[in-house]
Write a structure and sequence with these properties.
Strand content: 15-25%
Largest sheet: 5 strands, antiparallel
CATH architecture of the largest domain: 2-Layer Sandwich
Number of domains: 2
CATH topology of the largest domain: Uridine Diphospho-n-acetylenolpyruvylglucosamine Reductase, domain 3
Shape: globular
Bound molecules: flavin-adenine dinucleotide
Structural class: alpha+beta
Helix content: 25-40%
Number of strands: 14
Oligomer: single chain
């Protein structure tokens, strides 16, 4: 199937993009890399009158440091993060997550902001950014606001973005020198969306740990009690502890599904505490 006809716009500035969206009065769609929007247009699940392409806006392509935060423009592609094209992007977790998204052709065009705005529950960035405690920057004609990742994603394919908003950047707290991380996902084959996934960050110097499950029915789900135990003991929890944590977080899941998720958490935490098991 082919997309229904639409008017394509490629504004020169973020202000122009916001104006074009406001003028369209709800009949326009923002386009990042088009890797999810393209199929939706072709299947006619989306039939906008206008498509406003933000993928080459200078304001959305920058990577800067803001104190303890790394500010990554929404139009930076998965491949650019994977390749560490900007020195500030040469961070283990971000590069590793980017390299595991889909196939290189999709990573070449798909953007960080597009993936977060799309809010597929199985997507990698929604999970990684939840584990990192990132904030999302949203531009609108009224100004710019920042929301935590937890508040940003309301559920499957639903976010804090209102009509006419543009996701402009993601603010990622820099990990301390001593910080360690793990990221594990089960996929039927390389390049497919995850069936179960887990991301974890542990910073012993700050006694901070965050462990988050992904590929659920909705937004990623944190395991705060398990994270508190990891922060306190700085050790690999027992399988029984992992089982209890997952069962408490996901009471409705069947046994097979729970087992898959327990294994995802275990393999994710192995990367932090027993890395020799992961090579
Ligand atoms: C075969 C295939 C396999 C894939 N596998 C994976 C995978 O394993 N893991 C994974 O995480 N992803 C995967 N993806 C999704 C891929 O990462 C997409 O790049 C991503 O979901 C969308 O990013 P995009 O920049 O292409 O956004 P687009 O497709 O352009 O847009 C997606 C949605 O976000 C909105 N949008 C885009 N940018 C903005 C913005 N700046 N502000 C506001 N709204 C915006 C659009 O209006 C649209 O609703 C896969 C996609 C395909 C086609």
């Amino acid at each position: 199937m082919k997309a229904a006809s639409f008017e394509y716009q490629r504004p020169a500035t973020l202000q122009d993009a916001l104006r074009a969206l406001a003028d369209a009065g709800g009949a326009a769609k923002v386009m990042g890399g088009g890797q999810s929007l393209g199929p939706m247009l072709n299947l006619r699940l989306a039939r906008p009158k206008q498509v406003v392409d933000v993928s080459s806006l200078g304001e959305l392509r920058q990577v800067t440091a803001e104190g303890d935060l790394l500010r990554i423009g929404a139009a930076v592609t998965h491949a650019e993060i994977e390749d560490g094209v900007h020195p500030l992007l040469r961070d283990g977790l971000l590069q590793s997550v980017a390299a595991g998204i889909a196939y290189r052709a999709i990573r070449n065009r798909g953007t960080l902001g597009g993936s977060l705005a799309h809010a597929d529950p199985a997507a990698d960035w929604v999970l990684a950014m939840a584990a990192l405690g990132a904030q999302i920057e949203i531009a609108s004609p009224a100004g710019t606001r920042r929301v935590t990742m937890e508040r940003f994603m309301h559920g499957a394919y639903t976010t804090e973005l209102a009509e006419g908003d543009v996701l402009s950047a993601v603010l990622v707290p820099k990990l301390g020198m001593a910080a360690r991380w793990g990221y594990f996902k089960f996929c039927r084959k390389t390049g497919e969306f995850a069936e179960a996934s887990c991301a974890a960050v542990f910073d012993p110097s700050r006694k901070l740990a965050r462990i988050v499950l992904g590929a659920l029915d909705g937004a990623p789900q944190a395991l705060p009690a398990l994270a508190a135990e990891v922060a306190r003991t700085a050790a690999m929890p027992s399988r029984e502890t992992l089982r209890s944590a997952v069962a408490a977080a996901l009471p409705g899941k069947d046994a097979v599904d729970r087992k898959l998720r327990v294994a995802a958490v275990e393999r994710c935490l192995h990367q932090i505490f027993i890395p020799e098991l992961c090579t």
